[in-house]
Amino acid sequence: MDLQKLATSRRGFMGLAAGGSAAMALGAAAKQAQAQRTNARILIMGAGAGGAAIANRLTERLDGAQITVLDGRPQHWYQPGFTLIASGLRKADYAISSTEQWLPRGVTYVNEYAAELDPEANRVTTTGGQRIDYDYLIVATGLVLDWDAIEGFDLSMAGPQNGIAAHYASPEHAELSWQALDKFTDEGGVGMFGRPATEMKCAGAPVKLCFLGEDIATTKGNRSKCDFIYNAQATNLFGVPVIHHRVRQIMDERNITYRYQHVLKGIDLGARTATFTTPDGDVTDKWDFINVIPPQRAPQVIRDSGLAWADRWTDQGWIEVDMHTLRHARYANIFGIGDINGVPKGKTAASVKFHIPVVEDHLVSEIAGREGTRLYDGYTSCPLITRIGRAMLVEFDYRDNLTPSFPGVIAPLEELWISWLMKEVALKATYNAMLRGRA
Amino acid sequence: MEEFSLMTLLAVFEEMFGRGLFWAMVAVAVIVTLGYVYVLVRDRAMSMRKFLLAQLSMPVGGVAAVAFVMMMTNSGFADIGGPIDWIVLLGVFVAGAVGFAILVYVIQSLVRGKEADI
Q1: Residue B80 touches chain A, beta carbons under 8 Å
Q2: Amino acid A34: pLDDT
Q3: Pick from B2, B84, B89: which is nearest to A357 by CB?
Q4: A111 and A100, same structural domain?
Q5: Would you say B54 and B104 are in contact if contact means Cβ atoms under 8 Å apart?
Q6: Do A7 and A133 fall within a single domain?
Q7: Phi/psi at A115 (nearest 5 deg)?
Q8: Radius of gyration of chain B (CA)
Q9: pTM, 2 dp
Q10: Burial (CB count <10 Å: 0-12, 13-18, 19+), residue A231
Q11: What range does the domain containing A364 cover?
């Protein structure tokens, strides 16, 4: 342990001493001893969950690397918390922290976005005109929400005055979404929920908000005044068949109407109608409350860079990485973490948690002159909240297999209090520990 | 979860309560335990009278612990879904009950001293 490291962890060390255990100090010392010496220039695009966590991991694993983190947003958002904010259990500030506080000392943080990425020249130019050359690039930009794709909609419409929710947009919009949902569950009417037809982050969140709305209306004694309609983009309510059937069963039990292949195309605020594209042509319906979740795509700079798949998700632009190693198929010095990856499943923070050790292993191994061995099997998880106080801890992989972390203890398809406790209490703590490179 | 170790657990608890509060709670638990050991060693016996009051106070500690957890997590008894939920609930109750009983025993011993028992 060098002196700086000891200084930063002194409080932790004192705490441990009080607790009567030196295990953590020993563990840290052992890890530090393995640090690989290098002078590689590593650029991390994006300082969200994936970018911050890998920066912390690489700082620990590598000695002498020049690590640069590029992200234009000074705020870090704990996005798994948006559902709790949109259901009135938390305020917007629950999900807000500063990007900088999660980054380790010793990395260069450039508070700008990328304007151009040239993978042939190994170079990124920032919006401020700064040129950053790299030996290795980790793309962890996340995705962008294409609000303009919803005709007649503008984010400024969100809020209780219009009955419009947009809980994916930001912590503040999640809070406005709660005000809209609160008003709807007081006054009644038709509530529209649904999801876009593109790949999306946390495919469970649109369903959760619908379930939570129904539960809140029931608790208020206003359920009979409210209609709940869930519009699915495909012929299922969830991409994993066994989970789809369970969600459908719960929707049946709770009298939530569901419609397949209904994709939100546009809204008319004046008429309070929404238009959906369906296989049988457009359908227009009235609403009193609507949760708008737009199509989701890779940021433009990534779509322009040549990193995207040429023949898959062409309207979305996810990068062409190997689904098991997360290394780019055409540029061996480029890796992807999180939502930006063009892999079949999992744009969630849980996926990020499992992307990180794989990318860390392959990158550090390559620098050390070895071959990386760790593989990502598509694991992702979703505490699928069904009521305030209950959730199903669904976990699955690329093959649509259920992969419960606690088999025989926490049943994946059962609505449990313990799964709710995990989401409500333990998830943010686990997430924060992940960001610091400790989980 | 991957690589779920003691280290991860400590990190998660630190994040959950904040590093200061978590270790303060650990410290309180350690102090109460040490206090218990101290009075046992000092008195060279367990006082059954103090133990009786400690036992009688157990339900109070258990109920308080369950109420605290329910309040902190926006949940209620209607949310208890499966066997694991009952086990967790029972665990919370037992932890609260035992912790409170030890606390009551230690406080009695420290306040009333050894003689009060005779």
Answers
A1: yes
A2: 75
A3: B2
A4: yes
A5: yes
A6: yes
A7: -100, -30
A8: 17
A9: 0.88
A10: buried
A11: 3-145+297-378
- Write out the two tokens for B57: 């106070």
pLDDT at A242: 96
Note whether residue A427 is domain-resident: no
- Nearest-Cα distance to chain A for B4, in Å, is 8
Instruction: Out of A271, A295, A319, pick the residue that ends a domain.
Output: A295
Residues of chain A where predicted confidence (pLDDT) is lower than 70: 1-33
Does one domain contain both A208 and A284?
Answer: yes
Local confidence band at B115 (pLDDT 50, 70, 90 cut-offs): low
Inter-chain CB proximity B6 and A410 less than 8 Å: no
Q: Which residues of A touch B4 (CB under 8 A)?
A: 405
Nearest CA-CA partner of A374 in A362, A385, A386: A362
Same-domain pairing of A248 and A186: yes
| B41-92 residue pLDDT tens | 998 888 899 999 999 999 999 999 999 889 888 899 999 999 999 999 999 9
- Taken as a whole, chain A contains a residue count of 439
Asked whether residue A176 is assigned to any structural domain, the reply reads: yes
Residues in chain A with CB shorter than 8 Å from the CB of B84 are 409-411, 416, 418
State the ipTM, two decimals. Answer: 0.81
Longest CA–CA separation in chain B, Å: 56
Same domain, A285 and A151: yes
- CATH number for the domain spanning A275: value is 3.50.50.60
Domains: count for chain A: 2
Position with higher pLDDT, B101 vs A11: B101
For CA atoms A16, A105, A56, A33, the dihedral sign is negative
